[in-house]
Amino acid sequence: MAQVSGTNRKALPPTSYLRIFEPLRAFSEADQAVALTTGRISREVLEDATAAAALKRLTRPLSDPFPHLHLESFRKLVTTTWDGTVNTLYCPDQLATRTILASEQLDGSMRPQLLELLIPSAAREANALRVDRQRFTDDVAHLHTRTATWGVPFGWLILVHEDDEVDVIEDGDDLLASRIYTPMHQALDRVRYAAATLAIHAPEMDLLDELAALSEWLQLFDAESVVELDYGRIAALVWPDDSPHDLRLGIESLAESDMTGAAASYRRLSSRWLAVRQLARAN
C-alpha cells in the first residue's frame, strides 16, 4: 500500500482504466528507448504529472483539450512469477491518439452546439496538423489503454478475481487508486468462459457483445502481457469491491441454470454501483 500526494488527481472526474503492459520486445526500437527512459520515473510521480497536464489543458483560456507539445511516456510494471523470475513490462500512454478518439466519441453523442463549445473546430483542425498520421493509425490498431468515466465497465471486471495481485494507493486517509493485475492468459480464459456461458444461457445480454470485443482486443497483445484494471478515483467510491466476485458467481449460476443465484448476484452488483451512477448524473 503506497502513500503519495494526489492533489491533481482529486481535481479530475473519477476515471477508471484498463491497461495492457507488454514485454519490451513487443515495441519498436525507438519506442523501447523511450520506454527505458520514461520507465525510470516513479509510477505515482508519472500519474500526478499526467493529471496536472490534463488539468492544464482543461483550464486553458481558449477551449482546447488536445495535447500540444506532448512527448510519449511509458508506465512500467515489475512482476515476479511463481518461480521467482522478475519481468519488467511497459504500457505506452498514447495520449495524443486517445484524446482524438475521445473527441470523436463526443462527436456522436453530443449536440453540435455544445460540442463546438467544448471542442471548437479550430482546436480540432490545429490538432489534426500536429498529429503524426502513421503513428495515429498504428496506435489505433494497437491501443493499450481503455478509459471509462464514473464507473468500471462490467466486462472489465470479468477479467479479474479477488485473489489477484492488488496495489492500493493512498494520500493520507484518501484513496487515490486500486489496481488489480492479471496475467494475459488468465484474463483470456476468464473472458472466454464468461462469453461462452452467456452465449448459451443469456445470448440477449448486452454484456456478451462487450466480452466478445474485449476478447478480440486482448488477443492483439503479447502472450506474456499483464492486464491492469486501475479503478483510479472510482476506488474511493466502491473499494473494497466485491463486483468481480459477484459477476463470477452470477455467471457460474447461469452455467448451472440457477436463475435465483444469478438474479441475487445481479441485484448485489446493481445496488453497489447505483450510488456511483447517481453521482455521475448529478455531475
From TrEMBL:
<feature type="domain" description="DUF8083">
    <location>
        <begin position="15"/>
        <end position="279"/>
    </location>
</feature>
<dbReference type="Pfam" id="PF26312">
    <property type="entry name" value="DUF8083"/>
</dbReference>
<protein>
    <recommendedName>
        <fullName>DUF8083 domain-containing protein</fullName>
    </recommendedName>
</protein>
<dbReference type="InterPro" id="IPR058396">
    <property type="entry name" value="DUF8083"/>
</dbReference>
